[in-house]
Amino acid sequence: MSTLKVLLKKEVLQFKRNSFLPRLVVVFPIMIMLIIPWVTTMDVRHVNVSVVDNDHSQLSQRIINKINASEYLTLHSVTGGFDLSFKSLEHGDVDAILEIPQDFEKSFITGSTKKLSISANSVNATKGSLGSQYLAQTLAASIKEMRASLSPAQAGDLVVIQNRYNPTLEYRNFMIPAILVILIIIITGFLPALNLVGEKEAGTIEQINVTPVSRFSFTLAKLIVYWVAGLIVITIALIVAWLVYGQTAVGSLLTIYTGAFLFILVISGFGLIASNLSSTMQQAVFFMFFFVMVFMLMSGLLTPIESMPQWAQYVTYVLPPRYFISIMRSVFMKGATFYDMRFNFLALAILAVVMNLGAALTYRKRS
Amino acid sequence: MSNTHFIIQVKNLTKQFGTFTAVDHITFEVERGEIFGFLGANGAGKTTAMRMLCGLSYPTSGSGTVAGFDVVKEGEKIKRHIGYMSQRFSLYDDLTVMENMELFGGIYGVKSRKLKERATALLQKLDFFEERDTMVSALPLGWKQKLAFAVATLHRPEIVFLDEPTGGVDPITRRQFWEMIYQAANEGTTIFVTTHYMDEAEYCNRISMMVDGKIKALDTPTNLKKSFNAASMDEVFRILARDAQRGD
Fold first, then answer.
1. Of A203, A214, A197, which Cα lies nearest the Cα of B79?
2. What does the pLDDT read at residue A161?
3. Of A113, A72, A71, A117, which Cα lies nearest the Cα of A97?
């Protein structure tokens, strides 16, 4: 098809001549992959703990040492009264207070129940709840050790927790597949939409519309360029994940690329709808931004879909990133196969058809 | 209704935007091979009428044919047979002169060898050949207009629509433009041109005068001057535009 070839040549020339786009395609994924995995961690570190030691026993000392040694907890102070520790908490210097009651060690040996209390500042809910959990785990560990030293026969784990697929529970491993989603949305959703609206703003689309060129080939020529750019971006991101974080896909790369390409089709179709409905770049950007916010916050990128209210879970069924994120995480981390993820692939394929049909229907060569 | 003698035939063509009637029941014919001047004050509806004829805009009512195709139903077919030069420069700034010509020639399916020949000839005639590899963004306005004209006629359309082709162009370039227009007309291309320069109006075979969306007069320049008892087209224009309600 010679018209498509002519148009494709135009798009490639324009893309190469743009002072910004070729750099964006290379630099953007590298930057994102180098920075975002570090900063989007939900692992809480440096939880400042103040201990109110009313016991002054061997056990309480052991607990304090354990806190001091913890990677996640920082021992802020050991005080003789709750009020003192609470003042530090109010100042914001302390995130959690552990109160060890008087005669705690004694009660422990005799088997009666004196309880430790943890008070956490939960203004930052994540830090508060995770911090007190870490603290509780540290206490459990100290108590277990104590019990073992008292009667070695009883030693042994009561509970064994094993995290499969992400053994160290590194948040990074969980985020990297999801970052690819953001990259694709920006490179293959925003850019072609802006390009098309740019032609409207510059008036060049009018010269095209007055020719017999079909809207299909005109749009396809644009999209092909950004599809290729999208695949390059993903490849760069996967290489960075491997070189910098030592993370490689457990499952097949072919499955990942198939999912990525389907998702690219969906998102570029969506970008086209945005550009068809907008006459200026600003409109297009706001239109896209509204949906991208929903995509980011509701597709399971940051928070699990299962913990959303029921109505919101129904909404997520029409959000394309939901399926792609799920494919990426499962294939990347668990080694899921195409067959395992077939419903996600099917959903993406359906959405790709719907979006591109919508794009075709909203395109007007004539007013 | 289709008549090979007339390349454009329209009847009661109307375009409304909400309650505003931009083009109000215009009826006229354009003969094959003539230079047809489409005159009127700013806001008279010239561009809107032209956009309907080019298949860029749907008429609200009325009917007509351009190059033998229906303006309502066969817009895409019309586009194969016309050239269009917009009032606002609308070629690609980030492509060179030659790349723009190759792009649009290619879209109309002009074979690449023929395209090179024609583009070279056109550019040489427009004193433009040395600029073939210049980025369009670097060209002065008059030269951009030359390029737009070259692109509009590159595929040898049956009819070419020129919307104020000489707006903002220096006198020498204007002269070149009209030589090009005459040459194209001699080769059998019909020219449909809007302009605000009344000396240019004199070069047209026939002229229509649009006022407030309606065609108020349509004849040869000589006949128009006679019937309005005017010395020049300038005067004819002023007599007709005096009663205009809109425009500036």
1. A214
2. 55
3. A117
Q: Do A278 and A348 lie in a common domain?
A: yes
Q: Using 50, 70 and 90 to split pLDDT, how confident is the model at A156? A: very low
- Asked if A173 contacts A247 with a C-beta cutoff of 8 angstroms, the reply is yes
Same domain, A269 and A175: yes
Residue A225 included in any domain? yes
* CB neighbour list of residue B148: distance below 8 Å, 6 or more residues apart: B85, B86, B89, B90, B91, B165
Question: Taking an 8 Å Cβ-Cβ cutoff, which residues of chain B contact chain A?
Answer: 54-58, 75-77, 79-80, 82, 84, 86, 88-95, 99, 102-104, 106-109, 151
Residue A270 region, left (φ>0) first, then alpha (ψ -120 to 50), else beta?
alpha
Instruction: Among B58, B84, B104, select the one facing A366 at the smallest CB separation.
Output: B58
CB within 8 Å: B107 and A6: yes
* Inter-chain CB proximity A3 and B109 less than 8 Å: yes
- The pLDDT value recorded for residue A63 is 87
Instruction: Enumerate domains of chain B plus CATH numbers.
Output: 6-81+157-241 (3.40.50.300), 91-152 (no CATH)
Choose, out of B80, B103, B110, the residue to mutate when testing the contact with A (most A CBs < 10 Å). Answer: B103
The pTM assigned to this predicted structure is: 0.80
Q: Which of B56, B57, B79 sits opposite A212 (nearest CB)?
A: B79
Same domain, A191 and A245: yes
A159 domain residue, yes or no: no
DSSP-assigned states of every residue in A177-236: HHHHHHHHIIIIIIHHHHHHHHHHHHTHHHHHHTSS--HHHHHHHHHHHHHHHHHHHHHH
A13 near B CB under 8 A: yes
- Residue B149 φ then ψ, to 5°: -65, -45
Statement to judge: residues A10 and A141 lie in one domain: no
Residue B69, H or E segment: strand B69-70
Q: How far is B93 from chain A (nearest CA, A)?
A: 9
Nearest CB to B99: which of A13, A207, A213? Answer: A13
- Assess if residue A165 is contained within a domain: no
CB–CB of B80 and A17 under 8 A? no
CB contact under 8 A, B90 and A203: yes
A117-120 and B20-31 strand pairing: unpaired
In a domain, A160, yes or no: no
Predicted complex ipTM:
0.89
Count of domains observed in chain A: 2
In the stretch 202-231 of chain A, residues with CB closer than 8 A to chain B read 202-213
Q: Using CA atoms, how far apart are residues B116 and B64, in angstroms rounded to an integer?
A: 35
CA dihedral sign of residues A207, A209, A210, A216:
positive
Write a three-state SS string for B170-233.
CHHHHHHHHHHHHHHHHCCCEEEEECCCHHHHCCCCEEEEEECCEEEEEECHHHHHHHCCCCCH
Chain B residues whose CB is inside 8 A of the A18 CB are 94
Residue A93: give the domain boundaries: 47-154
User: What is the per-residue pLDDT for A114?
Assistant: 76
Residues A266 and A242 in one domain: yes
Within this chain, do residues A90 and A138 fall inside the same structural domain, yes or no? yes
- At B164-182, the pLDDT tens digits run 998 888 888 888 889 889 9
